[in-house]
Write a structure and sequence with these properties.
Elements lengths: L1 H11 L4 H8 L3 H8 L7 H11 L23 E4 L5 E5 L9 E7 L15 E8 L2 E5 L2 E5 L4 E5 L4 E4 L6 E8 L4
Antiparallel strand pairs: 1-2, 2-3, 3-9, 4-7, 4-9, 5-6, 5-8
Helix pairs in contact: 2-3
Length: about 180
């Protein structure tokens, strides 16, 4: 299903596998395997593909249907990336807005990505449960429950859970990344 959506948007944009490979730094053969659902891309690879195709990353993971403005706790979209220790919940009804809000859960000892990533815009994170270390441009900040951080997302950043219990945080990003 994921591969089919990637292929569909690539074709709609009139791009070849080679063009996407050049923009992402991934190989054409790997991208072909992803499109045929023979390989699961990491979250880092998914971000590169989404950026190359100029779509939010969650575009590939959600059904595009009409939504009520109210999202009940038990009706949130829950997304898990292959080979990732992150689980995302979307408290916002859809992705066609100017701001994206997501709640994420990260296992103890796990990180958000292999390497610091950047994206356009600004981001605000509030730690709801557990603790977080976040590296923003080489400076590491430690946050506990109730703490928040606001930063320019164009600065490479990576977060991880240094604690022994699940990290739960709320993130607001503008413009939408996923």
């Amino acid at each position: 299903m994921l591969g089919k959506k990637i292929r569909q948007i690539r074709r709609e944009k009139g791009m070849s596998l080679k063009e996407v490979a050049e923009k992402t730094g991934l190989t054409s053969s790997f991208l072909s395997q992803v499109e045929r659902d023979l390989a699961d891309p990491s979250i880092t690879s998914m971000r590169k593909i989404a950026e190359a195709l100029e779509v939010p990353i969650f575009y590939f993971l959600l059904n595009h249907e009409e939504h009520s403005p109210v999202v009940r706790r038990d009706q949130r979209k829950v997304l898990r990336f292959p080979q990732s220790h992150l689980t995302y919940e979307l408290p916002s009804p859809d992705l066609n807005r100017k701001m994206e809000v997501m709640m994420a859960r990260l296992e103890p000892g796990a990180a958000s990505s292999d390497e610091p990533l950047s994206h356009p815009g600004e981001e605000c994170i509030v730690v709801l449960e557990g603790c977080m270390d976040i590296d923003i441009g080489g400076e590491v900040y430690h946050l506990e429950e109730g703490d928040s951080i606001y930063y320019y997302a164009a600065v490479p950043h990576k977060l991880w859970n240094p604690g022994d219990k699940e990290l739960v945080f709320l993130s607001a990003i503008t413009p939408p990344l996923f």
